[in-house]
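so the lab meeting is tmrw and i was supposed to have these ready like two days ago... anyway. pasting both below. for each one the top line is the aa sequence and the line under it is the structure tokens. i havent really looked at them closely yet so no promises
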Amino acid sequence: MQHGPAVRRRKLGAELRALRTSAGLTSGEAAQLVGWHQSKVSRIETGTSGVKPADVRLLLDAYGVEDSQLRELLLVLAESDDGGGRHHWWHAYRGVLPPTYRDFISLESQATAMRTLETTVVPGLLQTPEYARAVTKAAVEGLSEDRLDTLVEVRLARQDVLRADPPLELSAVLDEAVLRREVGGPGVMARQLERLVEAARLPQVRLQVLPFAAGAHIGVTGPFVVFSFSSTSDLNVVVLDHLTSSLYLERKEDLQAYTEAFNALQIHALSPEDSLDYIAGTAAGA
């Protein structure tokens, strides 16, 4: 399975290698121009080590790259690497979070928009603390109370992207099973449904319910997430979660397939207005 930032490092490295070749330079000559050792250029081009945006600028200047759009793309690729930075608050939890989860948070924190199909549980960005605790405890057996507290803390910290300026735009299609599955007991579920009603009214959140009456649909194969980035569609990625790892899909044909699938799900789901009424009705009867 490929991790998001690792994929981006390789993509960035391949682009820089192509630009160096077009400039007629060897890796050694490029290293001399920027005052580095040749091995550093090689590690960057093979994606085996991260690279700071400032270093990317040095290389682009050395290669005579003046295309502003291309420069912006490569700088965004460098900034998306999981190597530190002002947005990477989750580094404080490196000893607790597995790499795949850190990769997911990295993408989520930098994306402009997120489209998600959820078939089992409420999206993490919309969970209440009590619901998040119940879900995490059920999903990961044998957790100590301290570790459980930390994972819930991370889940809640992730929700800041919806309050950022500008906020992440979240579009979610929820299978009706998400609303009907009682997680944590009746009281916890009632408060979670109320939270969904509140979230559905936010301008940056679009919630749609896919009722059981819709029958079989393209999402029966499982949940997925599509992250989009404003700077360039070349960074868009699909994330598929598995029990022990995550798969990141970045090929254009994969992105198109999942984007079309999400569009189809939105068509078959209730409208946002009807979904809000449906969630509120479910909450009233919970």
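ok protien two:
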Amino acid sequence: MTSAANSSGALPASVDAMLELLTSRGYLAERALATVTYLSLRMGRPLFLEGEAGVGKTEIAKVLSAALGRKLIRLQCYEGLDVSSAVYEWNSAAQMIAIRMAEAAGDTDRDQLSSDIFADRYMIKRPLLQALEPDVAGPPVLLIDELDRADEAFEAFLLEILSDFQVTIPEFGTVKAPHPPIVIITSNRTREIHDALKRRCLYHWVDYPAAERELAIVKTRVPGISAKLSQQVVRFVQALRNQDFYKSPGVAETIDWATALSELDARSLAPQVVGDTLGALLKYQDDITRMQGDALQKVLKDATTD
């Protein structure tokens, strides 16, 4: 895909063009991921990405938004997320002022007043409703991030949006997108997502990258790192993922660690610098404690042996 096509917001015309688009923004995707992303765009279907935290699921939405020149609308899910936070709520203060002003003016037509106060101008639009609105740059990228953190009841609410790209508001009516947004849904699989939602999406499991691809990612995202250090970093991280940790490091942690080591002007991995920077890789104290002494020496030796 040419840069002109990218800047115009045109969708990729092939899987190879999708790979080129992602690569141009520093996202080195495997072909299977590029294929399902391409199909999601061409078919107008939501893309459901599942995998461990830090493997690059959220980044896909950011890259598509930047590369296609589309607005990125992000809904960060959490326990207790409801319609008022995700879709809309009424500006009750403004509505009350309108009612008081109507009463002061002697307007007693209750039906007309009810119609007036539930107009668009009194509606506070949240991410899901914003994503259904027309945009001169083209349909936005809607990122529904970490859906597994939300309650199952919220999943049920999403079914109408993901099927028909519309939402029904009792006091207002049905709002339907003139053109479907590009929808990316992510899950860290802390719980299973219901089949009814998955059926409305194209699905892909985003796994940890193989060593060769992770090395290419590190070189792309940390351009100042030496070849020797980047290889040792990737070997070390790949070895850690074979350990029985509460949370294995993702690609995001690999990049953070490589960046930290570069900032410390490290040229190779040594016990002192590794021990001092393990917090960039491992986020739980039990995991860090487990990687002390002989365990650290063994992994470090394997990573630094040519």
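from a quick look at the 2nd one: The longest strand covers residues 182-187. The chain has a mean pLDDT of 91. will dig more after coffe
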